[in-house]
Amino acid sequence: MVPEVVPDTEVLVSFRGVQKSYDGESLIVKHLDLDIRKGEFLTLLGPSGSGKTTCLMMLAGFETPTHGEIRLNGALLNHVPPHKRNIGMVFQNYALFPHMTVGENLAYPLKIRNFSKSDIDAKVMHALSMVKLEKLAHRYPAQLSGGQQQRVALARALVFNPQLVLMDEPLGALDKQLREHMQMEIKHIHDSLGVTVVYVTHDQGEALTMSDRVAVFKDGIIQQIDSAYNLYEAPVNSFVASFIGENNTLEGEVQSLQDGLCQVKLGDGIGLTAKAVCADRAGARTTMSIRPERVRLNGASEQCANRFQGKLQEFIYFGDHVRLRMDVAGNPSFIVKVPVSELDGSWSVGDSISLGWNPEDIRALDPLNP
Amino acid sequence: MNAPLTAADGEPLKKKLAREQRLKQFKAIALVAPLGLFLLLTFLVPITSLLFRSVDNPEVVTALPHTSQLIRAWDQRGLPSDAVYSALAEDLARAKADGTLADASKRLNMEISGYRSLLMRTARKMPLQLAAGESVRDHFIQIDERWGDPDHWHAIARNAKSWSPYYLYRSLDLRENKSGVPELTPVNERAYLSIFGRTMWMSLWVTVFCMLLGYPVAYWLANLPKRQSNLLMILVLLPFWTSVLVRVAAWIVLLQSEGLINSGLMALGIIDHPLQLAFNRTGVYIAMVHILLPFVILPSYSVMKSIPPSYVKAAISLGDHPFAAFWKIYFPQTLPGVAAGALLVFIMCLGYYITPALLGSPEDQMVSYYVAFYTNVTINWGMAAALGSLLLIATLALYAVYSKLVGTDRLSLG
Ligand SMILES: Nc1ncnc2c1ncn2[C@@H]1O[C@H](COP(=O)(O)OP(=O)(O)O)[C@@H](O)[C@H]1O
Ligand SMILES: [Mg+2]
User: Fold this and answer.
1) Which positions fall inside the ABC transporter domain (chain A) (predicted)?
2) Does residue A48 have its Cβ closer than 6 Å to ligand 1?
């Protein structure tokens, strides 16, 4: 018997045990349990091919789940056709209708909903003013720049006041500067409208800056769903740690566990203490992850429980900071971030420098290469 | 004034650039020249001569030069002056000798039947042997009283110019009345207007059938995975692998009363009399649609291939029913390809010859059939050229209307 699902006022969409296969041989979405809260900005983040678009398409109704159920406001969505779902969508190529003006594009969903002519005009102008394009209502999409087309697509997805808007890599075709600008603009629109947004991207920076929560996908499974801060500071496995932000890895074998910490022996016999996240038994192999900015150098490292000697390999200059590539404990591409002000002028390539970090800052995760 | 910019070697930049571009232009011309020459010889020259032939009218002027010259001054009332009769006598004598009379009499015979024998008979009586005091006119009328009939002189007068709208008029079921104004020929003599009408009508239907059958196929192909659509595209192009003649022959085998389709249907007991499928309009339509279908499918397919599926998805996500979304969003975007295909098919239909000739009844023949008839059977270049020219003009006019409606810059052949 299927357990009765109690409609939760906070939850807008829930995926329960959803699976999807296109060819009957492999599962693109392996097992999806996901609650999307009302009003939140949720990002599906993952490498391309990890099934993000497929999830979005199932939610929009263009693909049917092979198994499992999707509910919107507690009502089963599986057999509701896509045009009855009232979900706004922004496509990567914008999909603005080329034979209609911007105004006609925006009026399209309103005409279908039988609004009066004056209502339509008012809503269209309101939506255009939201994306600051009031003056372009009579242009055709081909006469707009990429950024303007993006805004029109956004306005069109919002103009009929859907409670849920899906965006599939909507900024993928824009250049970096415009993309960052639009990220902020979308974020502000989300804040002011209170609409629920499900956003798909493979760009982790985008995901971290925009989202309330991020779901990290890999091979059709959500690896971690959390706030941007937790994803960065407390990744639950090696994939998340390496996919989000920069990170240094060290391989080793767990010796003992105690109070949430573990003793790990590295390949060359050196031992260190790390926060036990995935390491659950002595003798297991583990990949440990530490962020470059958590590594301390020279004097600052004296208080640390884990201390090493690293051989300086390369200076990489970034303007506000310098990255030092070092050979540490058998990892020849160990990166340490140093603010320019803390740089020691006497360092040169080939020097041996002492460094260290606290056990809470290095996380013992699942082995990357088991 | 700024001094002209110069390159590093002191030469003016403009001059250097011009020389560079001259070389490029020369290369472009050299690449295009062979085709240009080929088109000039095989396309422009024949079409020009076709247009010329349709108004060319040399026979009477050549055979009867003096008569032609004098009769132009005739006021067209009563009979021409004696001088014209004398000139005719002189011309006939010479024409008989140098053999140009046959063409002229054939030409005049088109105007009034019996003119050939009149001319031959009169020419035999040349040179004139006038009795004393007898006028030339009376003598002619004595040879044949038709020389006293103004109509016969009007016929010469009409052809006293080396060009004439006669063939074009006839191709439109018109004729010049006595005052030179075109009028419709009597109903029982009309033929060509209905042939032109039939040609347009049949072309229209073939085009409509091609679009109705081709559009869904193109849509299906455009939405299949690439491997399958490539394979099926070969099947679509299969008709191009054999000659039109062979395909028409195959259709005859299939469609005739004892053909495969009829005997199959009768064996299954679906019909008990053979259906008349060949040697009538049905057969012509079936074979022409089959031959011309790829010309609708290919441009439609290539346009559909370029339309991302996200457009229709977007329309559906905005709340539109999938059918409405298809009609309002997808279909308008395929128009350039479909319109180009339709235009192609229609224009090819207008000139179709072999299929109606082999698979149709006399009632299903199109303009091209009569062009071939006048070229091969009666050797009447004037009529053949006039029909061909009118077909060309009609095609161009239709094209102009069409491009006004659809916009040729929006057509896409893929
Ligand atoms: N319509 C489809 N038919 C068959 N396979 C598909 C289809 N759509 C996506 N796939 C496959 O599913 C996998 C995941 O695709 P997708 O959901 O688009 O991933 P993402 O959006 O994360 O890049 C890919 O390997 C892709 O080839
Ligand atoms: Mg995708």
Assistant:
1) 13-244
2) yes
Separation of CA B95 from chain center: 35
Top-tier CATH class for A8-238: alpha beta
Q: Which atom of ligand 1 is nearest to the CA of A52?
A: 22
What is the amino acid identity at position B311?
Answer: Y
Q: What is the ipTM of this complex?
A: 0.86
Task: Kindly write down the DSSP assignment for every residue of B175-236, as one continuous string.
Answer: EE-TTS-EEEPPGGG--HHHHHHHHHHHHHHHHHHHHHHHHHHHHHHHTS-HHHHHHHHHHH
Q: Does some domain include residue B182? A: no
Residue nearest to atom 27 of ligand 1 (CA): A49
Question: Could you tell which of A20, A21, A52, A53 is best to mutate to test the pocket of ligand 1, judged by most ligand atoms within 8 Å of the CB?
Answer: A53
Class of the CATH-defined domain A246-365: mainly beta
Domain check: are B330 and B396 in the same one?
yes
CB contact under 8 A, A83 and B314: no
Tens digit of each residue's pLDDT (9 = 90 or more) over B29-78: 999 999 999 999 999 999 999 899 999 999 999 999 999 999 988 888 88
* End residue of a domain, out of B104, B139, B161: B161
Would you give the DSSP letter of residue B12? B
Residue A106: pLDDT band with limits 50, 70, 90: very high
Same-domain pairing of B17 and B99: no
Supply the range of the domain harboring residue B6: 1-41
Atom number of ligand 1 nearest to Cα A23: 4
pLDDT in tens, A258-269: 888 999 998 878
Every domain of chain A and the residues it spans: 8-238, 246-365
Of B308, B310, B322, the CB nearest to A83: B322
